[in-house]
């Protein structure tokens, strides 16, 4: 009788129950995964679909029109994976840079005291945030194709930049030996600028004399490398695009597919970033601005020294989340044929090889890794920005 | 507990296995229609009109199978697929058969768990340019931008051909036939390349077909035909012989108009199921071929109705004529 009681109390124990339910939940999840995967393997075998990753080393056999690394149809499917991955990263980085710039400007404009500017910014946000991104990509793309001239009638800027419906053609810098010294001069210039700034800051706190450093900064960052550049006899020339036959040759080409995708992603994501910036600024207590004004800080100083540091703390996490979304949205490129990962590898290679599980698995893994990396970055930034000592 | 898990895993696997192995024929008869994968719109092959009615020679293969199996050529559910989606849709069982201008290649046949049930159109890859370019041969295309559909054999052929002939080009790849076409129309590229039949079909849909020329070079063999999943031989036989019935009917001279006429031609009566027992071998009722010819017509009727010289697409029979008329269309005998 006594034993029964102890079993009963064991069963009624909250902790045991909690553990029991967690174990059951885990078992169910494990079972669902196990049965799903074994079912998949079974079906693949039953249908005699080839499996494994041997296809990665096979010849790809098809062309890709945009690649940062050397690529011909003779390269392997694995090479296509790299080409796609790099193209994804390129469009993501370009998109993130422009989305941040546009978002920052619109976010601040939204709070402007000028009625027109504020309303224009609000209109921009409402318009672009409420149209699905896929439609925007298609609109930009088709607009570019329909409005731009054909190669023969290209918009011509100083015979070096050409714009037509096949893309934007710009001169490509060709680096010669010795150019590395110019790069070293740039790094040196930036380092010296930091030292110089620290020096004048110390002087400012010691003597109260404020020195404008912008001139020195420009001199160090731009002037120094320029001097080195000319001393070395200009170790750089440009490869200019020129019309030969059907199309332009030479220079660097930005295809309409890339441009449409980059513009659509930037414009769309900027709306969310603008809202994040606005919410950050509005989150700063009005008293802070009033206190700054009472201390005699100018508008700019108040924004730079008091408002923004506090606003960014609120604005940065959602902004980084948007970076994550932008990167994932880049896979919509498949609709217009920019050869990023999902289009080149998860699309064309998949269709040529037919091994959906392996190929989509690899593609998913890439997006997962990129997203996790961005989240990690977010956590680090969050930790750095959070209010210290509380 | 462990036993229970093992047991349930095992039973789940069995259920999964049954789902795979159950005959497509039984499935189709149970649900009362054939789910057929077609293109998202390639005039003459598979395209839906404004009322949602599908027509085309690929569509007719679907209808022939429905007529054979269910006695009703309209009992077809069409699933429009992109080139990239088509094989996965078939592998996963989403569709019962694929009839979507799909090229028969060894890779697809032998490594994707699929079987090609025959050829309903012998095609080859060609090029189309705007007449205003003044080009008369594909050999003049060096440096051109080429519009092409993603995930097709066309992409591979083009790369091979460019390499072989030392012709450099820029490829402009899009997902659907429609986007490829609008890219070509908008001038994103100089050349459109796909199967020659596709080029004629696209040219027929432009505002002024005379503004476009199909260049004479054919750079590949593209035998197009219906595809089924591997491992269901009965269904494979039904699809293969439904197509063969249409070809044989043309050879014998049976059309949808004359199908009811009883003659003393033994081959003809055997094909129509009025003598012999070939229907038992495929597991269908004796009027299965009769239904195909009555409701869909023979191969010639389907061809002339959809892509023949009297249609906007205007393709001559060429190699797609019967073997007895100088083409290569040939069905094994109904015996």
Overview features:
heterodimer; A: 390 residues; alpha+beta; two-stranded antiparallel ribbon; 68% helix; 7% strand; B: 335 residues; alpha/beta; D-Maltodextrin-Binding Protein, domain 2; three-stranded parallel sheet; 16% strand; globular
Short description:
Chain A is of the alpha+beta class. Chain A has helices at 2-12, 14-46, 77-110, 115-129, 133-147, 179-207, 214-231, 256-283, 286-294, 299-329, 341-353, 356-385; strands at residues 155-157, 161-164, 167-170, 172-175, 236-239, 242-244, 247-249, 252-254. The model of chain A has no long low-confidence stretch (mean pLDDT 87).
Structure description:
By secondary structure, chain A is of the alpha+beta class. Chain A folds into 3 domains: 2-46; 80-145 and 255-385, MetI-like (MetI-like fold, Orthogonal Bundle), CATH 1.10.3720.10; 172-239, no CATH class. Chain A is built from 12 helices and 8 strands. Chain A has a 4-stranded antiparallel β-sheet. Chain A has a two-stranded antiparallel sheet with strand order 4-5. In chain A, a hairpin with a 2-residue loop joins strand 6 and strand 7. The model of chain A has no long low-confidence stretch (mean pLDDT 87). With 335 residues, chain B is of the alpha/beta class. Chain B folds into 2 domains: 2-122 and 224-325, Periplasmic binding protein-like II (D-Maltodextrin-Binding Protein, domain 2, 3-Layer(aba) Sandwich), CATH 3.40.190; 125-220, Periplasmic binding protein-like II (D-Maltodextrin-Binding Protein, domain 2, 3-Layer(aba) Sandwich). In chain B, the strands form 5 sheets. A 5-stranded mixed β-sheet of chain B has the order 10-9-11-8-12. A 3-stranded parallel β-sheet of chain B has the order 4-1-5. In chain B, strands 2-3 form a two-stranded antiparallel sheet. In chain B, strand 9 (145-149), helix 6 and strand 10 (170-174) form a beta-alpha-beta unit. In chain B, helix 3 (57-70) crosses helix 9 and helix 3 runs antiparallel to helix 12 (288-295). Chain B is globular. The model of chain B is unreliable at 9-20 (pLDDT under 50). Chains A and B meet through helix 2, helix 5 and helix 11 of A and helix 1, helix 4, helix 5, helix 6 and strand 10 of B.
């Amino acid at each position: 009788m006594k034993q029964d009681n102890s079993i009963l109390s064991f069963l009624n124990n909250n902790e045991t129950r909690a553990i029991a339910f967690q174990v059951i939940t885990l078992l169910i999840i494990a079972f669902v995964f196990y049965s799903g995967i074994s079912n998949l393997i079974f079906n693949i075998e039953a249908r005699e679909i080839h499996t494994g990753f041997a296809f990665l080393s096979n010849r790809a056999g098809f062309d890709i029109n945009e690649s940062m690394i050397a690529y011909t149809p003779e390269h392997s499917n694995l090479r296509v994976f790299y080409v796609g991955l790099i193209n994804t990263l390129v469009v993501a980085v370009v998109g993130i840079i422009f989305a941040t710039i546009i978002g920052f400007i619109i976010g601040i404009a939204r709070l402007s005291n000028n009625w027109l500017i504020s309303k224009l910014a609000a209109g921009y946000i409402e318009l672009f945030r409420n149209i699905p991104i896929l439609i925007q990509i298609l609109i930009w793309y088709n607009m570019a194709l329909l409005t731009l001239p054909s190669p023969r009638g290209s918009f011509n800027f100083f015979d070096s930049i050409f714009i037509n419906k096949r893309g934007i053609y710009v001169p490509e810098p060709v680096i010669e030996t010795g150019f590395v010294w110019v790069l070293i001069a740039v790094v040196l210039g930036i380092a010296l600028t930091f030292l110089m700034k620290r020096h004048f800051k110390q002087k400012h706190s010691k003597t109260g004399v404020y020195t404008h450093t912008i001139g020195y900064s420009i001199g160090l960052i731009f002037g120094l490398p320029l001097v080195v550049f000319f001393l070395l006899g200009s170790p750089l020339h440009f490869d200019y695009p020129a019309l030969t036959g059907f199309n332009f040759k030479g220079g660097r080409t930005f295809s309409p597919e890339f441009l449409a995708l980059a513009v659509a992603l930037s414009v769309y994501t900027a709306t969310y970033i603008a809202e994040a910036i606005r919410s950050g600024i509005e989150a700063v207590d009005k008293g802070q601005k009033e206190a700054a004004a009472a201390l005699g800080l100018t508008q700019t100083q108040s924004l730079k020294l008091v408002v923004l540091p506090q606003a960014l703390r609120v604005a940065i996490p959602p902004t980084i989340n948007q970076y994550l979304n932008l990167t994932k949205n880049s896979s919509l490129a498949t609709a217009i044929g920019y050869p990023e990962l999902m289009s080149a590898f998860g699309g064309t290679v998949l269709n040529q090889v037919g091994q959906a599980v392996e190929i989509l698995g690899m593609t998913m893994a890439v997006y997962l890794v990129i997203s996790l990396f961005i989240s990690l970055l977010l956590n680090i930034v969050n930790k750095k920005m959070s209010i210290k000592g509380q | 507990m462990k036993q229970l898990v093992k047991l349930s895993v095992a039973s789940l696997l069995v259920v999964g296995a049954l789902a795979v192995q159950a005959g497509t024929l039984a499935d189709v008869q149970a649900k009362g229609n054939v789910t057929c994968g077609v293109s998202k719109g390639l005039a003459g092959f598979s395209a839906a009109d404004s009322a949602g009615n599908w027509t085309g020679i690929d569509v007719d293969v679907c209808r022939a199978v429905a007529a054979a199996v269910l006695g009703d050529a309209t009992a077809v559910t069409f699933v429009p697929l992109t080139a990239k989606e088509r094989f996965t849709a078939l592998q996963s069982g989403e569709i019962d058969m694929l009839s979507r201008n799909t090229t028969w290649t060894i890779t697809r046949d032998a490594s994707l768990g699929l079987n090609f049930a025959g050829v309903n159109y012998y095609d080859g890859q060609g090029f189309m340019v705007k007449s205003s370019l003044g080009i008369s041969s594909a050999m003049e295309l060096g440096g051109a931008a080429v519009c092409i559909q993603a995930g097709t054999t066309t992409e591979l052929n083009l790369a091979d051909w460019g390499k072989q002939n030392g012709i450099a080009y820029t490829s402009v790849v899009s997902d659907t036939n429609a986007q490829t076409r609008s890219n070509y129309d908008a001038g994103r590229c100089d050349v459109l390349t796909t199967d020659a039949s596709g080029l004629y079909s696209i040219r027929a849909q432009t505002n002024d077909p005379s503004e476009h020329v199909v260049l004479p070079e054919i750079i590949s063999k593209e035998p197009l035909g219906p595809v089924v999943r591997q491992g269901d031989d009965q269904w494979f036989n039904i699809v293969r012989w439904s197509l063969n019935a249409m070809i044989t009917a043309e050879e014998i001279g049976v059309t949808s108009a004359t199908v009811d006429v009883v003659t003393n031609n033994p081959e003809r009566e055997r094909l129509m199921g009025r003598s012999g027992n070939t229907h038992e071998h495929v597991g269908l009722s004796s009027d299965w071929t009769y239904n195909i010819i009555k409701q869909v017509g023979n191969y010639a009727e389907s061809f002339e109705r959809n892509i023949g010289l009297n249609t906007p697409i205007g393709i001559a029979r060429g190699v797609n004529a019967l073997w007895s008329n100088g083409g290569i269309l040939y069905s094994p005998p109904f015996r």
